[in-house]
Write a structure and sequence with these properties.
135 residues; alpha+beta; 44% helix
């Protein structure tokens, strides 16, 4: 995910950026902006010559995005497979549609559990780094 913003403060390699939130942010529906006023922390890993007031592009590491995606997708998918397999194992004569239905039910149960856990223990702020200076 790439974001744009203006540099507000520079402390060594740590940079405070005021995010440009003119576009609707669907990912978190602007929840992050509401909690921290739209300010983001980033690092200048590429040692770019930065100055206060410059517009920069930020990037989130792919490993961070992959980890969050797997946490969101794998438990519900596993829930479906578990529900389908257990139903077929416990009731071998049951129609496949019924087994699929129980898999879908367990999929939603697992998704709800992941939602509740994430609500109670939110993901830490994703690390960001300055990718490039925009004109």
């Amino acid at each position: 995910m790439t974001e744009k913003g203006k540099i507000r403060e520079i402390k060594g390699s740590n940079i405070i950026i005021k995010a440009d939130r003119s576009d609707f942010c669907f990912g978190c529906t602007k929840m992050e902006c509401k909690t921290n006023g739209g300010f983001l922390n980033a690092e200048n890993l590429k040692a770019l010559p930065l100055e206060i007031g410059q517009t920069v592009e930020l990037k989130t590491p792919d490993a961070s995005k992959l980890g969050q995606t797997l946490i969101a997708i794998l438990p519900p998918a596993f829930g479906f497979l578990l529900g389908f397999s257990l139903t077929r194992l416990l009731f071998p004569d049951i129609p496949e549609e019924a087994a699929a239905s129980s898999g879908v039910i367990l999929l939603f149960v697992c998704a709800f559990i992941v939602y509740k856990i994430r609500k109670k223990f939110p993901v830490k702020e994703s690390p960001r780094y300055v990718e490039r200076i925009l004109a």
